[in-house]
Write a structure and sequence with these properties.
Blueprint lengths: L14 E6 L3 E6 L9 E2 L3 H17 L10
Antiparallel strand pairs: 1-2, 2-3
Bound molecules: zinc ion.
The site of zinc ion has 8 residues, from loops.
């Protein structure tokens, strides 16, 4: 299992894997709301692969910054 690195946007160590509605996962920063793309899955096996995929996206810095309006 790969570990989640720090947030590439705010550099806080508060990332976690979120499961959305039982069909997709993504990584989100609990500090600034930056997140990865959603990756869908159909069963438990695919869920593990999806979690690994979003972990890698996060660690590569392929994230979507949450714009909070200015
Ligand atoms: Zn952050």
């Amino acid at each position: 299992m790969e570990e989640l690195g720090i947030c590439p946007v705010c550099h806080e160590d508060s990332a976690f894997i979120e499961t959305e509605g039982g069909w997709c996962v993504y990584v989100q920063c609990g500090h600034c709301g930056t997140h990865t793309a959603f990756t869908s899955y159909k069963n438990e096996e695919e869920k593990k692969e999806a979690e690994l995929a979003v972990t890698r996206l996060w660690n590569m810095g392929k994230v979507i910054a949450e714009s909070r309006g200015e």
